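pinned: reference chain
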Amino acid sequence: MSPPATHPTTPAASSVLRHANRRGVLRLLNQQRRCSRAELGEAMGLTGAAVSRITRELISAGLVLEGAPLKQAGSLGRRSSRLTLNPNGGVVLAVNLTANRLQASLNRLDGSRIAAHDLHSAAGLTPDAVVAELVSRCRALLDQHASAAPLATGISVAVTNRSELHGGRVTSALLGWQDVPVASAFEAAFGCPVALESRPTGLLRAEINAGHVSPAERVLVVNVGVGIGMAFTSGGSRPSHPESTLGNLAHLKHPNARIDCHCGRQGCLQQCASGVAVVRTLSLGANRSTAPLSHHNPHLHTAIALADHGDRHAKAAFFDAGTHLAFGLDAAHALLDPQQIILAGEAGRQSDFVEGVRAGLADAGAPLDAQRLRISQVTSDLAAASIALDAHVFGHFPTRGAPTA
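pinned: its structure tokens
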């Protein structure tokens, strides 16, 4: 019998494997907060030697901290120690370019915020001027907190489909932007890699990184602000945003709605189950369904304040929008069978909206109990920071003097 065939490992394949293992260690430490080397090896299926090499490199790079050895009764061998992610091992910039928020923040390696600046209004500013202003605010944050150069920048963008993020440039009907060079502006300013993703994808990444969601679960995030966005992961697959404008929840047609939508259809949930639907019901802004959704953001803030202070018309408007969204969630549940559906966004977390969603699901007999429908507590800056961490820190080993494997 001939010996089994061997498959030599190429340098490129070895590099990919090393990056994947380092990413896994950093992610586990971020989720579990502290682990021994033995626990890391067991969780990742790695040998003790491999874990030792990876953790030695991460400690040398300043990304991981090692605590004092633990006392183990009856053990004569080497005492184990706990490893933790070093939140101060570097910083990332987190930027939100969404219909609800224009924000720049400085974040630690665990995603937590150091400081943030909000651009409260983009009135009168061109898209290029908005980007320049956010770059300026990022620079001010770094200067104010005496931070070293950022490891990466993550940018959360309001888009209807991921194809609108092409080559670091943004085209967004939701923002009213056309082919705006976003990534290059931040790369030139800070000399670090930049990752752009849709806002819902960033929210889902943050849920996974924080340990709120198991990477093995099927999870749907539905972000409801002035518009609706979604991201889905299927049992360990990369969280993704729908590629097709008509192939996501926002553009599912509700049988009882007739409002024109950006996509050219009528009755999309984007127009009847979102914050803009509430704004329209309350006649707070211009009733132009084709205007960029970002134009309605100040009016949504007004509507939320009215509802939270007990205004019955505002409360009813949010409740009705929630019942419309329930139609879409029921359909998504039937098609995707998610183990969790997470509602996020300023409108999505509003109490009357959530009550409307639950009431609509109950009326439809949808098999979604309280455990399967959850309200996200992830902040906008954590979502954007998670984009940077996944793409360029947890995903790619920062080369700051660390030894090579």
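why pinned: The CA atoms of residues 257 and 267 lie 4 Å apart. The first helix runs from residue 11 to 32.
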